């Protein structure tokens, strides 16, 4: 298990829990409109599950000294960063569009708006972490 922390970029896998927070926060709000919010849910759940599986594979130590694992790590986190960026932009757009409409509703509007804003922030943090992990994975891949 301690092999997981052998490189600095391995710690970023644990920090990608922010993606789980996005998933939870979006699930707590009204899902309106469904299309962009559905994409955000898909990206956050998919990346959360795949990153957990990826972390388990790396924790088992099957990846050391193999360039193919380094390339796969770079590819996965690059795709995840791109997906999260698209989901973050869509979530921010929906939050901005609904800010005036939902805040007029005094019972659920402000609460949902605050949850949406929190989801946007955590989504961009997850995007940044995936992007940094992609760069560090590329550096490790090129070192083979």
From TrEMBL:
Question: What broad class describes the main subcellular location of this protein?
Answer: membrane
Question: Which GO molecular-function terms appear in the entry?
Answer: structural constituent of myelin sheath
**What domain of life does the UniProt record list for this protein's source?**
Eukaryota
Q: Which PROSITE patterns match?
A: MARVEL
- Choose one Gene Ontology CC annotation of this protein and give it: membrane
Q: Does the keyword Hydrolase apply?
A: no
Q: Which residues cross the membrane?
A: 12-32, 38-62, 74-96, 116-139
Please report the name of this protein according to its UniProt entry. Answer: MARVEL domain-containing protein
Q: Subcellular location, in the record's words? A: Membrane
């Amino acid at each position: 298990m301690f092999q997981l922390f052998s490189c600095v970029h391995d710690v970023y896998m644990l920090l990608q829990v922010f993606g789980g927070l996005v998933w939870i926060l979006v699930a707590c709000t009204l899902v309106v409109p469904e299309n962009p919010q559905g994409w955000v849910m898909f990206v956050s759940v998919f990346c959360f599950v795949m990153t957990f599986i990826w972390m388990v594979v790396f924790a088992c130590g099957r990846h050391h000294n193999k360039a193919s694992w380094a390339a796969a790590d770079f590819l996965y986190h690059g795709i995840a960063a791109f997906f999260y960026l698209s989901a973050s932009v869509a979530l921010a757009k929906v939050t901005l569009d609904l800010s005036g409409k939902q805040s007029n509703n005094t019972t659920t509007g402000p609460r949902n708006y605050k949850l949406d804003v929190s989801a946007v922030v955590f989504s961009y943090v997850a995007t940044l972490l995936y992007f940094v992990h992609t760069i560090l994975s590329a550096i490790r891949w090129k070192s083979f």
